Backbone:
């Protein structure tokens, strides 16, 4: 098995680049077949990936079930992360941070995954109707019962992180982070570093925008980018101009745009672990090669210049999804109106 550089999430040593498993089951058009998903997951482990990230929400439990079928026979080779609070009930997406809902989601997840514990279990989003202390308390009880080993939060603000960490140490905070989405820099990164919490960066290649995967807004039905203003024309046409400049820089450095984006995320600190997703083994191999890439200060400054304020236009979420985001907005950030 290949050895990748390592980073730490709480007590766990993990590969510097993990794998986000969501798009093996939903979100970006038609997902691959089960057999293709199984091949990709095992190839990831063979290639040295030791962090697999899923959630109850993904495919309404199908993603957890896929991991259960594909890789649980290799359970000792990786750190398993999943999430609760966001879930699917009767085909509808629900946000429910009540302790009893968290317990039910966890038990269902363990059954689908075919394991007796999840290594890192996140509150997927903040349920503003439930005190964060109550939701974290449910995770503490699950840890005491041996069902989870470490606690995480996703898309939560510095203030919420502080409240949660006061109840029980948080091992990781998962937030969107890429050269074009810098929200963690508005408070989350500082809050994490003050407490020894790792940042797990999802969408580190900006939902394909920085991986050569978006050239026009002709997405397949059901693709979540159809709901995201910055991925639709006329805003997308504007945004692709900055992406083209980024691609030119990548070519100059002998990298793909995905590799440059991942190298940038890795360069922001050794306490950051990106988890790009893909349905392609070739793209997975391309992504993992970024773990060996180091960016100098000049290159980082050029990336900052390419994505200066205004280079990317449009909110990152539609209003309904943004309402579930607790992470701080950046100064002047565009927000979808309800």
Residues:
């Amino acid at each position: 098995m290949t050895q990748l550089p390592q980073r730490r999430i709480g007590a766990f040593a993990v590969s510097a680049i993990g794998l986000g498993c969501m798009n093996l089951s939903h979100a970006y058009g038609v997902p691959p077949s089960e057999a293709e998903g199984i091949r990709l997951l095992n190839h990831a482990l063979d290639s040295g990936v030791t962090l697999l990230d899923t959630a109850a929400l993904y495919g309404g439990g199908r993603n957890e079930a896929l991991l259960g079928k594909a890789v649980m026979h290799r359970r000792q080779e990786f750190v398993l992360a999943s999430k609760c609070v966001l879930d699917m009930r009767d085909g509808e997406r629900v946000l429910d941070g009540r302790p009893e809902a968290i317990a039910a989601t966890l038990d269902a997840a363990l059954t689908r995954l075919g394991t007796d514990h999840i290594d890192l279990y996140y509150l997927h989003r903040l349920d503003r109707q439930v005190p964060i202390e109550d939701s974290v308390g449910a995770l503490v009880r699950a840890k005491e019962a041996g069902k989870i080993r470490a606690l995480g939060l996703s898309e939560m603000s510095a203030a919420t992180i502080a409240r949660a960490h006061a109840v029980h140490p948080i091992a990781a905070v998962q937030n969107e982070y890429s050269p074009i989405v810098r929200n963690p820099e508005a408070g989350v990164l500082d809050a994490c570093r003050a407490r020894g919490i790792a940042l797990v960066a999802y969408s580190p290649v900006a939902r394909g925008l920085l991986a050569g995967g978006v050239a026009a807004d002709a997405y397949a039905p059901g693709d979540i980018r159809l709901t995201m203003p910055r991925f639709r024309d006329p805003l997308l046409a504007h945004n692709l101009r900055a992406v083209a400049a980024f691609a030119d820089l990548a070519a100059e450095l002998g990298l793909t745009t995905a590799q440059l984006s991942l190298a940038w995320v890795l360069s922001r600190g050794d306490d950051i672990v990106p988890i790009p997703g893909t349905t392609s083994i070739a793209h997975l191999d391309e992504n993992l090669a970024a773990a060996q890439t180091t960016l100098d200060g000049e290159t980082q400054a050029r990336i900052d210049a390419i994505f200066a304020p205004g280079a990317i236009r449009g909110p990152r979420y539609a209003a309904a999804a943004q309402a579930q985001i607790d992470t701080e907005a950046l100064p002047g950030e565009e927000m979808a109106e309800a």
